[in-house]
Automatic annotation (TrEMBL):
This protein's encoding gene: LOC140015981
Top-level taxon: Eukaryota
Upper taxonomic lineage: Eukaryota, Viridiplantae, Streptophyta, Embryophyta, Tracheophyta
Protein name listed in UniProt: Late embryogenesis abundant protein At1g64065-like
Domain Late embryogenesis abundant protein LEA-2 subgroup, residue spans: 105-204
Keyword annotations of the record: Membrane, Transmembrane, Transmembrane helix
A Pfam match: LEA_2
Membrane-crossing residue ranges in chain numbering: 47-70
Amino acid sequence: MADRRNDQQVHQLSQNYNHDAVSNFKRDEESASRESDEIRRKKRIRYLAYFAAFVVFQTGIIVLFSLTVMKIKTPKFRVQSATFETFNVGTATNASFNLRMNAEVGVKNNNFGTYKFQNSTISFFYDGTPIGEAMVPDSKSGWLSTKKLNVAVDLSSNNLTSNSQLENDLNSGVLKLNAQSKLSGKVTLTFMFKKKKSTNMDCTITVGFADRVVRDINCM
C-alpha cells in the first residue's frame, strides 16, 4: 500500500511539474511573441518616420527649386555707358546739336537658363522728340550673366520744332536725352521649358557740354 501511495504521489508530482513546465513554456512563448510584436511595431514606426522625413525633405527641395531655379524673372535692358565720336553743339543764339554716340547696352539675365532675344531698335528722344535710332542685333544672354552690346547712333536736333528748351539747356551746359526700347525673347530652362519674356528700356542720359561726356545714366 505504501508503495502504491508513493507511486501516486510521484505521478501527481510529475503531472504537476509537466503542467507547470507547459504553462511556463506557454508564458515564455507569449512573452517572446509580445516582445517580437513590439519590436516589429517599433520598426514600422521608425520606417514610417524615415519615410515621412524623406517626403518632407523632397517637398522642401521641390518648393525651393520652384521658387529659385524654375522662377522666371524679367531680364533687364539698360544703357550702361556711352562716349562721343562726334560732338558738335551750337550756341544759345543758334541752338542745335549733332552728336555721334557709341553706347554700350547690357541685357542682364538673372535666370537659371539662357535668354534668347530678337533684334530691336533703341529710340532716342530729346524733350519728347525723336532724334535718332540705334539697331540692336539678335543675340542671347547666358544664365546669370549680362550680354553686352555696342551700338552707334547719330543724334541730331534737326527734327525739333522749337529750340526754346534747347536754348535753355545750352545755357545750363547740360543736355538730357531719353533712350527707349523693347526687347522680346524667350527664356529656356533646363533645355526644355521655354517662356516668352519681354523687357523695356527707359533710360535718361545726362550729357555735359563743357567736358563732352555722359555725366549720368539713370534707368527705370
